[in-house]
Amino acid sequence: MKIAVIGARGRIGRKLVRRLRALDCAVVEASPTLGVDAVTGRGLAAALHGATVVVDVSNPHSREGAAASQFFSASCHNLLTAGRAAGVRHHVALSIVGVDRIPGVDYFDAKRTQEALIMGSPIPFTIVRSTQFFELVRDVVQDGDVREVRIAPALVQPIAGDDIADFMADTVMAGPGGGIVEIAGPEALRLDDVATEIATAYEDGRRIVSDVEARYFGARLAERSLLPGAGAWIGPRRFDDWLRNSLQPDAHC
């Protein structure tokens, strides 16, 4: 089975490539740094030639404004067009839990556009909607100002990037038929509490401020906006285990 991973040099892409190769899959790594640009179409035909599955875990450099919309509209259109020409039999894409419940946010609107294009294509698909991954929460903490980071106290069920990669590899091996599925971590936690523990573990001297008005990708969060539904696949790695492992010098996060 030949699999083209779009966004192969990203955080989830690198993990996914390793897992698929461990399963003896022939993997084509596709990213702009490797000469494959889904937004412009450069290198796509060659990357997808003979591929059975396309897995899209790519992301734009900016998640705000028109940049996100243009990225997902162009890249998804080009991937589906090239996939049909190449005879791809399964299109797998990573999306976000809650993307259908939080309108008016540029990044979420762009992801909904991507999902609609995939669902409107004749290529069988699986859309994997994931909750926030721990590594992303860590990035949010690191992006605060010099004295404090304001975080909404919304409930989240964050998941480890390794578990996302494991599930997506299993999805590839299982074949099409998944439709839209949700995945999440094993614990429901307050987003501000998770941020506080991350800041403490990384010896970040800034204060984490719980603020119901704090935005998440520009969205004001209700308490349960980011929680998965009852049928979600639950990853095994708990927050404390991930945090402990992430502090190891050789951790791949």
Indicate the topology.
Blueprint: E1 2-6, H1 11-22, E2 26-30, H2 44-48, E3 53-56, H3 65-86, E4 90-96, H4 106-119, E5 125-130, H5 134-142, E6 148-151, E7 155-156, H6 161-174, E8 179-184, E9 189-190, H7 191-201, E10 207-210, E11 215-216, E12 219-220, E13 233-234, H8 239-246
Parallel strand pairs: 1-2, 1-3, 3-4, 4-5, 5-8, 6-10, 8-13
Antiparallel strand pairs: 7-9, 11-12
Give a verbal description of the structure.
The structure is a single chain. Helix content is 38%, strand content 20%. With 253 residues, it is an alpha/beta fold. The chain has a single domain (2-246), classed as NAD(P)-binding Rossmann-like Domain (Rossmann fold), CATH 3.40.50.720. The strands form four sheets. Strands 2-1-3-4-5-8-13 form a seven-stranded parallel β-sheet, with helices on both faces. The chain has a two-stranded parallel ribbon with strand order 6-10. Strands 7-9 form a two-stranded antiparallel sheet.
